[in-house]
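Assemble and predict.
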Amino acid sequence: MIDSPTELLDAAGRGDEQAQGRLFSLLYEELRRCAHRQLGGRGETLSTTALVHETFVKLVAADGLRLESRRHFMALAARAMRQLLVDHARRAGAEKRGGGAAFVTLDDRVPDGPPEAVEVLALDRALAELERIDARAARVVQLHFFGGLSFVAIAELEGLNERTIKRDWQAARLLLASSIGPAAGAC
Amino acid sequence: MRSTATESGTDAHRRRAFELLREALDVDETARAAFIERHAAGDASLADDVRELLAGNRTNLLDEDASALAARLVEAAAADALPGGARMGAWRVVTPIGSGGMGTVYLAERDGDGYVQRGALKRIKRGMDSDAVLERFRRERQILSRLDHPNIARLLDGGIADDGRPFLVMEYVEGMPLATWSAQAGIGPRVELVLALCAAVAHAHHRLVVHRDIKPANVLVAADGSPRLLDFGIARLLEADTGDATATAARFVTRAYAAPEQLQGLAVTTATDIFQLGALLLELLGGTRLAGTSGATTQGTTAGGRTSVAKALRGDIGVVVARATDADPARRYATVEAFADDIRRWRDGLPVLARPDSLGYRLRRYVARHRWLVAASALALIAVVGGAAAALWQARAAAAQERIALDRAEAAERVKRFMIDLFQAPDPAHARGAMPRADELLDRGAAQIATALAGEPRMQAELYETIALSYMGLGRFDAGVALLERAREGLAGSEDRMLAARIQTRLGAGQAELGRYADALASLERASRLHASTRQRDRMDDARVESIRGWVLRDLGRYEESAAALRRSLSLAQSVPGEMNPAALRALNNLAYTLQLAGHEQASVEAYERVVSWYAAHESSDSQARLWAEYTFARALREFGQPARAIEILERIRPTLRKVVGDAHADLAGLDIALGLARMDRADPDGPALVADAVARSHRATPQRNMLWAQAEFARAEAAQHVGNEGDAIAGYAAARDAFAGLAGADHPGARECMRRLTALAARDADAAD
């Protein structure tokens, strides 16, 4: 049983699914803690980029990581962030009135969740659809939005030029926007 | 609402649209339209979708930072955690005691004047702290603090905590969750619990507060079984000020228990609470929830469907629930009280008002309702219908040989149709589907007899008689007498002397009840003559006439004549001397009363004892005749100076009588008058108040100035005199004297006794003045 994130990352890079799962949990928990910590932060919130970077520094020693592992870590962090958002949006009960879903008869109030909760879930569904239509564009969204990676960094990861990544993002943003509605949230 | 770009067409279509979109973004904006047109290659829907996607370029979620979003969502989901010892205003958080949609609920304490007050503290979520919301919070809190009802958990306090978030403190209720309690509670307590909740909600409605989120989770049951309704008006308090009515209305209520109008964002009114109380009743009685109805009702249909609810709960209570939970608020009960009344009617075996009812239903309920006095006549009503059917059958069996049989069958058929129409015909005055009360039904029937059965005086007379008996059972002697008089006129010259004599007998009894003693004696005299002229004379008919004559004469104060008539009645009723049967017992009971008033104590007590002991040996304790005998005997014992024995009997039979006749009945009031007088004799300080209360009830049940009224008034004066309230005593004796004299002349013993007491009181006044 390996415990250090660095070793887990290595093992995950070799295709060890169990290691990947444990690393994901570690990341998820760390991101949740960071997000929670930000509450007391008196207005000063870390950007996603800074957050993921901090997590990276904290979890895996900066030294000796191959580019492959680093890429893997970022992708995993982006996935963990997406999962975190979806889970908490769901916990806020947004699913119950979101997306035209049938009324469910849970003995619970429709909660006072922020309107973003509904949109986060809509985004999650739309992104899953985009994965079928254009997997690369979906990856770009995941890394940029949820992982806080710059277009340059994504281009580097994907081995493409920045302009292509930017186009992917722009097109995906328009497509997803049509599914999640305006940010003001009167959908 | 949403673009159809991703929802119409296949993945292939979407893939092409996405591809084209990406390419179009590379093209200069001015040239995009032409580019899309060209590359869509005649696929109009493809071009449309891409254009629409491009047009949807506005700020959206993806422009925000995921980390900030995560912070907000994590907070929203895990916000409320407060450590023990935390302070909210004057309150100290002790420990979490539960959680609901609003967040965690804490047990909190504050120091009162030498004691520690406990409360259930709830924090309002972040985002609910705009100035407008806070202002409303203050306003509503004042309204809510006015609610003061034993079944409502009070709002103790509320305020704004240091972090700017509002909080509420409700009365801390030590009780069991409703679900836990109901698992081991019987049907009776459950119904009582709902009635208590109805009272609480009615209290709030009178103060213009609607709960709007009544559900099992908001009810706690105290150790004594009494419920407390939590969170009154809190849903309203928390509504955000936004123009989007649907979102707001539905936001803070529980979907599973929400009324259709809440889900549709329509006005929430007191009818909403009625819906939720109905749903609660259903769940408590049927064990099922009205769940699933919420989705089904958005189309404005019936909530849960009347039939399905009615099926889930058998019988009337299903109808009551269906009425309370009608999808249309206007079709529900108008008030919580009306809903509670119908629950009580169901509980007490009375007809509920909610049912569009059938003939059989109405008849069944009618009989159950009027067991005490009208059971016989209600059964007669059924017998008329049933008898008509039987006659019809017999006529068919007799195969139309006899014309007379055919005529009878035809008449019977018409009666039957009449009865069915009567009980089923919708009345325009009750357009909302409410069914008429029993007496309204009788009015309608009485009004229709003349036309519906024109040319059938015999049938008419029988129906008039039946309905008249029902009226008199309800205490409406004037209406009953009027119908009997109409029946008598219809029968003038009829050869059916038996029927005519019976009508005259009943008329005599009704007139006597109205205090029309001269008319009564005349009617009874005609009945006797008719009996004498029939060939098959029945002694029982004569016994009945003599018995009525006996109590008319007694009321008139002609005790010797009364006793003679009652002795005749007794011997007519007995085929052999000493035989006991209902008619003989009635005569003997009446005789005992006459002897009592005439002052023949020993003979009276002997007669009473014979009657009472016979009933005790032969009839159940809730038999009407037995109860009457015991009641009159106890009354006599009090008159004869044995109040302790009287109290013993009256207290023993009171619960039974109450069960049989109901709270409002004159006989129960009469019993309480006797009980109060007896207690007064025993120097029980509660006696006079009981008398006063019972007299008031008696007057309500019997407002007409008959003997009963005069006797009750006399008792009122006695009680007033007993407590030294001479003004009331004088007024009472004077009113009683006028009533006695008006009924039976100034020489009536009752009138004379009143005068004697009035004179004594005046003399004492004069002494005091000297």
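Chain B touches chain A through 64 residues (CB under 8 Å).
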